[in-house]
Write a structure and sequence with these properties.
The chain contains seven helices and three strands; from the N terminus they run H-H-H-H-H-E-E-H-H-E. It is mainly alpha-helical. It has two domains: about 5-70, no CATH class; about 105-160, Orthogonal Bundle (Arc Repressor Mutant, subunit A), CATH 1.10.10. It starts with 14 loop residues before the first helix and ends with a strand.
């Protein structure tokens, strides 16, 4: 796919690829190199249609993003199915009471989201971690960890509580 590590990365593969790898082994051969991402995607589409490998679930050219290759109707079907499978009595926590300690931790976690923060690199202040996350694109989880001193930065940005 044009990424230098991809041919040798055996972890991020589907289960069928892994089963074949375990049964038969694998031999890596670089077909073409020094391609742009777009050229690599086009070549991938061409080779998948020609060779018809048994482990590719898409036509190729999507960088392994199977979700985007699905139709909008199919995506909505999957969302609905997942929503139903995790709601009500199907949810793993349904009917399980939470201890006061757990409730306290949940309240504290939610209240942390309303702490005013400032991005050290840009100097921009935000009214909450949620706002900082929306504006900078850094996940709120990372911003909380930075503020608590468990992480130095994320995506080149660091934050402080104000």
């Amino acid at each position: 796919m044009g990424l230098p590590y991809r041919p040798f990365d055996f972890r991020r593969r589907n289960k069928y690829w892994k089963r074949l790898h375990d049964k038969y082994g694998v031999s890596v051969e670089i077909y073409k190199d020094n391609l742009s991402k777009e050229q690599a995607f086009q070549l991938e589409i061409k080779l998948i249609s020609k060779l018809k490998p048994c482990c590719n679930f898409t036509k190729g050219g999507d960088g392994g993003n199977v979700w985007d290759s699905l139709s909008l109707e199919r995506q909505e079907e999957i969302r609905l199915k997942n929503r139903r499978s995790q709601s009500g009595s199907n949810h793993s926590q349904y009917g399980k009471p939470k201890s006061e300690s757990t409730k306290s931790k949940i309240r504290q976690s939610k209240s942390d989201m309303f702490v005013a923060v400032r991005c050290v690199e840009t100097g921009i202040s935000f009214e909450s971690i949620s706002e900082a996350s929306r504006e900078t694109g850094v996940a709120s989880y990372y911003i909380k960890r930075i503020i608590k001193g468990r992480r130095k930065s994320a995506y080149g940005l660091s934050f402080i509580a104000i």
